[in-house]
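Entry 14. Ran structure prediction on the chain below.
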Amino acid sequence: MLRRFAIVLLFVAGLLSLAAPGRAQVSSGTIEGVVKDPSGAVVTNARVEITYPVTGYHRETTTDDSGNFRFSNVPFNPYHLVATSQGFAAFAQDVDVRSAVPISIAVNLKLGSASAVITVEATGADLVENEPQYHTDIDRDLFDKLPLQSRSSQLSSLVTLASPGAVADSNGLVHGIGDHAENSFSVDGQPITDQQSKVFSNQIPVDSIQSLEVISGAPPAEYGGKLSLVIKVTTRSGLGQRKPTGSVNASYGSFGTSSAGFNVAFGGQKWGDFIAVNGLNTGRFLDPPEFEVMHAKGNQQNVFNRADFQLTGQDAVHVNVGYTRSWFQTPNSFDAAALNQDQRAQIQTYNVAPAWTHTFGTTTLLSLGGFVRHDGFDYFPSANPFADQPQTLAQKRKLTNAGFRADLSYVKGMHNVKGGFLFQNTRLTEKFSLGLTDATVNDPCIDASGAPVGDTTINDPAACGAAGFFPNDASNPLATAPFIPLLGCFDLTRPTPSPLDGCSSATSRPFNFRDEHDIRETALYIQDTITTGPWAISLGLRGDIYRGVQDDAQIQPRFGVAYNIKKTNTVLRVSYARIMESPFNENLLVASTADPVITAAFGAAGTIRPGQRNEFHAGFQQAFGKFLVVDADYLWKYTHNAYDFGVLFDTPIFFPIVWHNSKVGGPMVRISVPNYHGFTGFTVLSSAYARFFEPQNGGLGASPSGTAVFRIDHDQKFQQTTHMQYRLPKYPAWVAFTWRYDSGLVAGEVPVATDTTTPVDLTGLSADQQAQAGLFCGSTFATLTTPLSTCAPSLYGSTRIKLPAPGTVDDDHNPPRIRARHLFDLGTGVDNLFHGDRYKWGVRFTVINLTNKVALFNFLSTFSGTHFVTPRTYSGELSFNF
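Output, structure tokens:
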């Protein structure tokens, strides 16, 4: 059924793409109108421009032969509109775009002195938004110059740098305000709630993005699923672009990183097309477990196309089509390199999303849209299975999300109403094979100290005594990890399984897992934003029906209020949201399995049900003249069934788990400096506490007991990013500088000793892991050849992990943490090297981690292991713009 639906949708999208040469957006708006003189005659070739100084958004156009103008694909924000024409006084009006319903402006010019140049400056009132939801607006004019750390997950880098509360983790993972990747994307109205880290899926290329709105506050009723952060993406369009515009670029930098691409926008009054194509090849695709990069090559290819068709004055069609392929190696540690590990992965993502809109009069807009998005993930082991320790793994996983949405928007008077329906079906296919390659894992025998023996000729605990060893079973008090007979069927180090195993084969072979399931989600919502005087009140109600491995349904009220004190340019706001969080889809079937092999190793899987969250926000926005705006918010989140991830053995199979509940909160602040004589900047600051409460009641290894409280590894006391950029006044050159500070995530898997004499249990760390952590004893540092064995507590320390003093470790109040880090990035360039008019050559040079700081993202994380931040990285780019 799902395949048939996908084929039909692809066919419909193809027909729409071939239709006659908009307003097919529900995540952006339209400003249109007609310019007339005092006699009522239309004014042709009048200049009309709109600006939003906080993000630097600026667009301009000229009226046609009928005096008409139109700005399509306008992000939801307040704008300052100015119309000018020779012989007339300038016309100015504020326009607040909050709906996809087109806004019609009647511009009546008055006679006045001729003016060829009009300078429009922002006032304090232009810098604040009377909105109940705390959010961050990011326009292309800003992020086009922002030095981004990751070339293969630039969207994640952009969100973590420019929005408060987005905590950066390795491999493009974004922790949204204390939660593990509980983020949603809305790309031109298409909902995407699956993980966008580059080890799960491919992200939409930044080349295709016009603007972002990151909602960190209580989300409106139109959004559901995973809502710690809602990232609204408005893509670029060619609608109305009578002269083709675009760019061709190529770059080269450190780690043999090269990229090339082009984008072009073209169209007419009734149609438009935007295409972006780019490719990347690099020697550091994923973040490796060593500061020195080994076996980390990867490449990526992106194709994105957006087509817009204004069929009639009331009907418009919009189609997004995208394809991305990424191939990459799994980076090696020194331990893995010694074994010649050669593990690789490939992800292929395609997306098709057509939409149609119809406008009823001047107040109502209907939008209908469908979508099919597919992620295919393939993981390939080393050719020699015994190079992969302690197991070898191959995986093939598919996630296909297809759905339909309908939205109706109505704007009149004080009301801005929107209601809608969403249905989506996600087809999950999970397959993998796994075999043990370390003879000491699941060993039938142990020695007198309780250590596994590793004798591959023994496959039965009953035979241990004759060989001078002890049986590794539950009857032996020395056994800390008793032999599991069923796992012996898949122990490739012992060709013949144990007679206790009950294997279906006479020889050991890899374990094979396969499962398929459909996840169906249906939602209805209604919301209204009431604006009256200085008040803005949002009321919303959402209902979700979830039919997956487990079923659930919830009603979710949403509420918010903002009050604008116009005399002081101050906005005060509070908001609340009840949220049903849907489970992670990635390896959900493994996490819920009753397979006897997996449950023998982990215990029975607990039920993974949707979570229930109560979320509260209080904040303010304050403008200081036209020079500065401060936007602050405080968050409290209380969640029952709080999600995190576990890992299957020591493999890249990450699966969702559920803790009993969590309490997450903290302040978020953004300080913005609008353009002042070429200088712009911002600072984002946040703190996120993330307290999780046992027991684990969902996923593999669930336990019905346990009452401990712990800080999960999304908890970070403080982080900030300061970005500044300056454009020379009389020359098209610019410079951009970014300072990033992270106080350090919780490092929950450091083997901290519980006694009062040793900070770390060294027996739990290899020499390589000790070196990764930067452990030292006085002036002696752990190395690959000389690990530490003992040390006086007063001389013990780590350069990369903040270790609690002996006897003071507390999982809630004093856990080990990654050490704080300061990172500095620099970019500079010239946009018009040869002072061309129509055709412009540009160059830029970027340095990431200017001081070459050696620091960790995480250490021995149960989710992803150990990863270092990017070393000092240089890149140069040449572009041709037209």
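Residues 137 and 213 are 5 Å apart (CA to CA). Will compare against last week's run tomorrow.
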